Amino acid sequence: MSEENKDIVDVTEISTDFTFQEETELQKFVEKDMPGLTSVTDDKLTQLFSMYMKGKSYTEISQHLKVKKPVILCLSKQNGWYDKKVEYYNAIQANIQDRLLQTKIESTKFLADIVGYYHSTMGAKVEQALADGKKISELMDSKEFAVYFRALEALEKGSGKSVDPGGKGPTINIHGGAKTTVSEDGKTLEIDTSSGEVGDILKSLAELTKARKKD
To answer: What DSSP character marks residue 56?
Structure first.
């Protein structure tokens, strides 16, 4: 083996994904002065590298493009294919993480908008019910409760924070009995939880509240 050929292949700083058997194949190929290596055209080299980047094994590439495997191994090490693949996949991973972060931010904003919308629309109805001493079910659609509470819970889970971390919001007491009270500024709003979807929703919220207090 010529010293020139030895220098071409024996580059320790170049990483590879060769198996022990493939390392042995390459070593024997180099000792024979790498027959057939110079016959690989630029177009063929591009095809070989393209298949490698698509995840094909050296054996699969050899069989598909009819190039001897030791030649492909030699080209891979000479051109640093493995390092290029790692760099490429790292770039993809970084892009995916950026997109996931952006999606989470957009989703959180969307949920916050939903919660804000219901605060605006439902808040006026709650205030009216408190002032008139009426049941909340008389003024609000139970489906509005369902959407609001689901959006609120999803927002807290997504952001990892409580929507009211300071505990400065209105006091809400929810009990599992037939009657539920919501108190604000000394006024009490009574909600019948013994029937209807509103009752089911509030009972679920009560259970959720109790579970959080235990945590």
So the answer is: -
